[in-house]
Structures are given as structure tokens and as C-alpha cells.
Write the C-alpha cells for this entry.
Amino acid sequence: MIDDKALRLRLVEELSAGSHLRTGPWRAAVEAVPRHEFLRGGFFEPTNAPGPTAWRPVMPDTDGWLERCYTDTSLVTQIAGTIVPRDIRGEILRAPTSSSTMPGLVVRMLEDLQVEDGNRVLEIGTGTGYSTALTCHRLGDDFVTSVEVDPDVSGAAGVALAACGYSPRLVVGDGLAGHKDGALYDRIIATCGVVDLPAAWMEQTRPGGIILATLCGWLYSSELARLTVGEDGTARGRFLGGQISFMLARPQQPPPLGVLPDLDSGEERPARLGSDVLDDWNTRFVAQLAVPRAQHVTLNRDGCTEHLLIDVAADAWTVLYEDGGTWVVRQGGSDRLWDAVESYVTHWRADGAPPLERFEVSVTASGQAVTWSTS
């Protein structure tokens, strides 16, 4: 039977071959930290049956559990905010709310964080604690603070960290508020997606420090951004590419749709763009810049497939559908959502559709701005 040390070494080679693991200190951390210790509570696997995704538990006494702990895959560890693998016998049809992120992404982000010896790091989202342990191995316990909103998740991570000999500062609270008692930090890294970069993160980062976070919207196209905090308290940087996706921070989750408006009302016109622009990751990201708080729902009414964009807070909606091979848009409420999407996407395409790595992010007291560069 293969042991966990051999599995760790095999994972190291896989991550190195994929260019995720690039430097000696982080390689040593992955070699030393046993990922399976952070998955002692088991994980969920999808059943791959037709229809909505169902999940079933995989426990430590399941054949192949140890080997799967060392695959480069994300493993779901919590469902519906409270349910863990030991709670389920059979299957569950609910949405994941916590996971152990795929190691390749974990180490890629830690490499991209560009830490140096003596740096003080604030981690937003402890999760299972695996990435926390890697950071402790690299920098030392006293230089690592990790915030987790879920007390049960934080408690389980603390047990696993202690079992592996690590004792960082663990905080239960809203990660969007950071942890001001430990500020100023040299680096902040977020393992959840955010719609808006919190001002608290900039305030708690020293000038010249780095924030690494995944910026997202409610159309669910997201990108990893690395920003440097300036002397004036602003933050600026670029996206790093790679189509990285994380669960959104819980306070920034989209609101319930509630009762839908009368979708047969509103103003109708031929659409310059169809809903197929939302199928492409980069184009959807640009569309999302235009309508960051719009949600996309596919409806079937009277035998016709309709694509609904709805911004609940703005009381604005758009319906797109095809009629004889031509896209038609119907819009209502306070704003014309599809007008904004068409304007952004058309402008971006006219500039040559630059990749997301050429987008610039700036966060100031007046808000967050994302623009693209043509060079």
C-alpha cells in the first residue's frame, strides 16, 4: 500500500510539471504538509447522474480515500452551510459551501503572492486549513493570521493544524472586515471570490504590500487580481489570468430573485448581441463589468427559451430570445441592462478583444474600477 509521503512527493512532481509549483520553499512546504490530515472528516463526490448535481460522502474508511486526497482536484467538504460528510447516508441535492481547493491552485496563488521571509500574511477563508499550513511552513506560525466566517469550519481546521504541528492565529469572523488587531500586513490572500474589494483590506495592508484576490460578479466569470497598495491607501494591479473561480464570500452572495416582474411588459427591440456572448468566459467577464449585480436565469415559457438578466436591487430586467434566427431583447425597470452589456462588449471587441491579463484594476475611496489596455 502506498503511503502518504510517497503520495505527497508524487503530487509535488505533478504540480511542478504543471508550473504551479515554481520555487524551493513552497516545494518544501507541499512535501511536508499532509493534505489528508485536513480531510479526516471526509469529502463529497458528485454522483454524475443526469439532472441536478447530487453529492455522496467519501469517508477515510472508503477505498481510495487517501489516494484521492493527493489528486490535484478540489474536494467539497460542506454542503448547504452546515452539512458535512458524516451527516449523510446516501446522497444530497444541495449546493456546496466549503471545499479543499485543488492543490495546483493553492500553490499557484501562494507563489503569486510573492512572499518574502518575515512577511506577515492575512488569509481570508481558512477552509480546511491546508493552505494555512503551507503558509505556516513557509513563514512560521507567528507570521500567519487566518479568518474564517464559519466557526465549525474554523474549529475543524484548528484541530488539523494542531495535529500537524502548526499554530497560526485563527480568527472566527467576517473576512471582508479583515483582522485589524493584527495589522498592518505585508500580504493579504483571499480564498473566496469578492464582487468589491473591501476597503478594510487596503487599510490593513502596509504601503507596498500585496493583496491577492479573485474578483467576481453575479454572472460568475472571475479572475485573480494582484494589487499593490500605495502610500495613499489605494490599490492598483492587474489580472493574472487562468479563469480562476472561488465560491463568493457569503456576505456578497446574490440576493434571492423573489417574485419575477411581468416579463411580457417593457420595451422590445432587435438585439445587437445575443445571449451566446455569455457562454464565453472573457466576453461574459466584460458583460459583467457592465452589469455586476445582474443574475442570469434561463426560462422556458410557452415553448420558447428565454434568457433573463435581472438586477434585484436596481429593479431592472432584460429578456433575450431568438425569433426566426434573430435575437430580440425586451427590457424593463429602472435601467436597460442589455444596452449596457452591448456597449461594453462592442467597445471591447473594437479594441481587439484584449485578454483579461491586460485589464487593470484600481480601488480608491471613490470605488472600484476595471479597465482594459490595448497595448
